[in-house]
Design goal:
By secondary structure, the protein is an alpha/beta fold. It has one domain: Response regulator (Rossmann fold). A five-stranded parallel beta sheet has the order 2-1-3-4-5, with helices on both faces. Strand 4, helix 4 and strand 5 form a beta-alpha-beta unit.
Length: about 130
């Protein structure tokens, strides 16, 4: 599995990387622009990410904008199935959650602190682990 963790908080980023690394190659991005660039490069090189863990509140490009752009890149590249994109964020308002699912196209939404058992259960449900 090829994984991208996009998180500006060092502690959260390292935690997700440590949790997910046993299941595949785990790249990291510290802001939304870096995440989108890595995602696009992987698609263009025909080595797309299977999983993206994406924070919402990040500098340069927030996670919602990055999510929408990633889905647009996948459509442009005619990439199916799409990557599983899980929003991993402290933002838990119904408005944010609805926006991520219906307007952004996320696969799932987990509120921090991340429940590691729930995350691993989702990955199992997706057939990634």
């Amino acid at each position: 599995m090829k994984i991208l963790v996009a998180e500006d908080d060092n502690t959260s980023r390292r935690l997700l990387q440590k949790l997910l690394s046993p299941y595949g190659k785990c790249d990291v991005a510290v802001n939304g622009k870096e995440a989108l660039d890595a995602f696009t490069m992987a698609l263009n090189n025909e080595e797309p990410y299977d999983l993206v863990c994406l924070d919402i509140m990040m500098p340069l490009l927030d996670g919602m904008e990055a999510l929408k752009a990633m889905r647009e890149e996948e459509a442009r590249a005619k990439r199916y199935p799409q990557a599983k994109i899980i929003m991993t964020t402290a933002m838990d308002s119904p408005k944010d959650i609805i926006e991520a699912y219906y307007n952004g196209g996320c696969t799932d939404y987990l509120v921090k602190p991340i429940d590691t058992k729930k995350l691993l259960s989702l990955l199992s449900d997706y057939g990634l682990i």
